[in-house]
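A reminder before we start the practical. When you read a complex entry, don't treat the lines as separate problems. The point of joint prediction is that each chain is placed relative to the others, so the output describes one connected object in space. Small molecules and nucleic acid strands, if listed, are placed in the same frame. In the example below there are two entries. Take a minute to note the order of the lines before looking further.
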Amino acid sequence: MKAQDYPAPVLELITRLKRMPGVGSRGAERFALWFLQHGRTDARALAAALQTAADVVSACPECGFFAQEGKLCTACDDPTRDSSLLCVVEQPTDVLPIERSGSFRGLYHCLGGKISPLDGVMPEDLSVQHLLERVHQHPGCEVILAVGSDVDGEATALYLAELLGRENCRISRIAQGIPAGAGLGHADAVTLMRALDGRRSLGS
Amino acid sequence: MKAQDYPAPVLELITRLKRMPGVGSRGAERFALWFLQHGRTDARALAAALQTAADVVSACPECGFFAQEGKLCTACDDPTRDSSLLCVVEQPTDVLPIERSGSFRGLYHCLGGKISPLDGVMPEDLSVQHLLERVHQHPGCEVILAVGSDVDGEATALYLAELLGRENCRISRIAQGIPAGAGLGHADAVTLMRALDGRRSLGS
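Here is the predicted structure of the whole assembly.
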């Protein structure tokens, strides 16, 4: 006698769900059973959405954010945006947090990563050449380096600052300091050092 | 200027992923971005698996466990199983935990729920008639009531025990007591009462 297991299509579904980040065997089984017991319509709708997204979503040819195949993303396609402001981020996923803050009205440039010799990521692996071309197209623009503040991010910012220093553009780096709403007790030494370094005078 | 958001197919994918149990907005976004950035092949494979599972998986016509459309499940299809033992569970998802324990070699019967007047679930909503038919087919069999030990589960077990009392079969209920590996300190009063009630004599 063989111990009973799920039918092959259910096991295949569990295997596929388990590939998702942070989903283990139990979670994948739970999702699969939910789809079978309560969500056949949801299963078909999710299947269609996955297929469509995998087929038609690609990188915006201008900035690298998500866009529909062969089209510009909504920011690059929006003539009311300030094309003299170019915000350089590591990943396309960094764009929306900035958008949602509502404090930026310029364009973006997604590098596709950060310089990290240990991981084998060199400047030529990133969208650096295209960044220079975009800066050429908008002489006098401001390039805001919004890459992360870890070691690799800082190295990337320094590298880009040096490279862009020869171009007709202003270069800035997003501020580092204590996060909004946080007490000093939770800030580490490096953050406090940078917050003090970057202090701004109040009053006239 | 409109704030940038994901392209429509990505938003649709996020919406669909969010329907999964326990997945919120952040989790759905994380899954969607993972599929787009690292898992296009995985996205297509999961889409196919969902479609197949939704199309070909149905309830075993005999016991109600998952089976491929039009076929018996592997347990009902296995002639080496002991057909004189019928384990009655609430849901198809209750079958595998028992299978995995390796301590049961009989057949199953999934009721499809438990009697719960407050939720509008009455005996006629469950697979009770078919259970009687199966008992008729195996005179002298033992019916093990393995429904849950909550109020509705107990009511269901009592109802079935009364109904099956008129049939040619033995009726048993799975034991209630302290879980394996647990100290008494963690057991509630009802569990302890039932563990004492169900005590077994040791020695000869």
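Discuss with your neighbour: Chain B touches chain A through 63 residues (CB under 8 Å). What might explain this?
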